[in-house]
Amino acid sequence: MKISRGFLLISAGALLLFAAGCTKKSVAKNTPPPPPLSTPSQQPRQQASQPSRPMSQPQQQASNATPPRMPDAATRARIDQLLARIEDAYFDYNQHKLRPDAIKALQADSTELRDIIVQYPNYHLTIEGHADERGSEEYNLALGDARAKAAKAYLVQVGIPDAQLSVVSYGKDKPVCDEHDEACWQKNRRIHIVAAPAS
Predict the structure, then answer these.
(1) Which of 13, 14, 68, 91 counts the highest number of beta carbons within 10 A?
(2) Are 23 and 47 found together in one domain?
(3) Into how many domains does the chain fold?
(4) Angle between the 100-117 and 137-158 helix axes, to the nearest 10 degrees?
């Protein structure tokens, strides 16, 4: 029994020493992990940076692709509906200043139109300027241009980006009415907004 007790005491002492040694080793192992913790934190950064390089290219392409992206078919259909609802703005004889009824016509759906097209920087609208048949070709082209620019200035004020609006003057070359009276001439003194052809 004495031998077995002694054996037990020696065994217990050895276990304590072993446990103490393990504790020291585990403490020693636990002490250095701050550098390994910083190393793993660097590794995810490196791993994140390495995959993010390939991922950042698609992201850059996506971000680069987003601004030039044209609206899809459903959005283009909605824009066409809005353009159809915006009535032509009409002008007094020999004038290019927007009348109150012309402003009302442009106001109709221009806010919703703006909210849509600002998302598609490569989508453009063209403002056509027109004049009645009286006056020279050169004079009416200048007058149509001034009318289109007046409408453009209003739409820019509403918030449609200037870069997405272009103007063209047809002068008296594209009348909507061919009669030779004031009622007909009034219909021809106008601006008309259309979607610009895709480039």
Answers:
(1) 91
(2) yes
(3) 2
(4) 60
